[in-house]
């Protein structure tokens, strides 16, 4: 995990949103390892009208900018460009841009939405985590970082309603504990 960079101090709260398996897998070959319609609706509801920060691979897996949200893509590729997204090459720049837009729009938080490396870099700045905990273990190539014991407190848990043949899952909100 990246160490805390004191140069990044967003005025607006930073949150992360993710769906992960019991073994912390979030993706396989650029895709989600499951299709949970209720989770996609939860994601849309929680991110609506908030700036989104994501890595290029995550953006590519979606294929287009998500509507009604500033889409900020972090990539090392200096030539990457896509209509409807803002491109940054460092997490600090992405969070600064998201913070400026959130302040203008009066959004209550910035949403970091992956992938694995972006989550690892952004975790030190996050104050809230929206995690869909999927009750399954899967193989994959992208994972969510471990949470340090005592740093996070569960503040809400709501059971999802899986369709037939789908794994069970919970929508869980964690907040960073006071230092």
UniProtKB/TrEMBL annotation:
One Pfam short name: DHFR_1
Keywords: NADP, One-carbon metabolism, Oxidoreductase
Gene Ontology CC, one term: cytosol
EC number: 1.5.1.3
Residues covered by the DHFR domain: 13-176
Enzyme class: oxidoreductase
InterPro entries: DHFR, DHFR-like_dom_sf, DHFR_dom
Keyword NADP: yes
Protein name in the entry: Dihydrofolate reductase
Organism: Vreelandella songnenensis
Lineage start: Bacteria, Pseudomonadati, Pseudomonadota, Gammaproteobacteria, Oceanospirillales
